[in-house]
Amino acid sequence: MTIYNLGSINLDYFYRLPHLVSAGETLSATEYRIALGGKGANQSVALAKAGADVFHIGAFGRKDLIFLDEMSDVGVNIKNVALLEAESGHAIVMVDSKTGENQIVLSGSANYQISEKQIISALANAKETDWALAQNETCLVHEFLLRARKKGLKICYSAAPFVAEQTASLLHLTDLLVVNEGEADALTKFTNKDIQALGLPNLVITLGSKGARYIGNEGDFFVSPFNVNAIDTTGAGDTFLGYLLASLGQGLTMMQAMRYGSAAASLQITKPGALAAIPTIKEVKHFLKKNV
Among 5, 24, 136, 286, which residue's CB has the most CB atoms within a 10 Å radius? Predict the structure, then answer.
């Protein structure tokens, strides 16, 4: 099974702060660094580290090519990542040193210059046993998922950053929708339907420190979180999704897959950064063994 991920690739500019900035406030950072990130890149790396075969479809600034080594080095296939003269997508990530909570400002840049030709080429050898994955940080999301559906792929949609109208328009294509609690509430308000009435085969709602909830073909249940000391929560949701989807592809039940996702995200937030903090499958299995 292969996972085709139409996803953003960003350069993340991290600023660690004494607290998150308020309106009108100027605040000195206690730490600054640049790292590869973006929801798409984070999820592809999490998938690869969880043992999945993953092809990434995206676009990135040619001058920043060296940063892509972080993806290819863990096994992500990047042959369908276009290198452009445009600026790479980037994000300003501000992290509260005390709580690990963050604020993020995005600039899409190259992520919105992906071509339909790339999608056609990437999906040329896709099979019905494969998955297509997308988020809301690139162009051509609808076109990609529609092509994937026509080829018989299963669809996982990570609907963030959340856009209610776009998310609602893609529900009929989606086999697995993953949203956080606020996004789930916004979706129910937009559609004027209770979350259970959306008719999705599989819906996972991440609840932060409260764990995650599943509603779908396998029932309605919660998976409890693990108790860890959070250093930086940036990328936790992407890590959760990557391990969840990879585990489903390996034949685990939804509850088992969510347990793996929760363990991976719990480990990830104990280290600074997003992509670089994603744990390996060996680390996740060891953590689960200690936390039965």
Answer: 5
User: Which is catalytic among the residues 64, 130, 232, 238?
Assistant: 238
Q: Rg for the chain (alpha carbons), in Å?
A: 18
Mean pLDDT of the chain: 95
The pLDDT value given to residue 90: 94
Domains of the chain by start residue, with CATH = 2-290 (3.40.1190.20)
Contact at 8 Å (CB) between 261 and 47?
A: no
**Is 185 labeled as catalytic in the residue annotation?**
no
Q: What percent of the chain has pLDDT over 90?
A: 90
Helices (H), the chain: 39-49, 69-72, 116-122, 141-150, 164-170, 181-191, 236-249, 254-268, 281-290
DSSP 3-state of 169: helix
Q: Are 111 and 137 in contact (CB under 8 A)?
A: yes
CB neighbour class for 128 (10 Å; exposed up to 12, middle 13-18, buried from 19):
exposed
Closest of 10, 46, 260 to residue 137, by C-alpha:
10
Give the C-alpha separation, 122 to 165, whole Å. Answer: 27
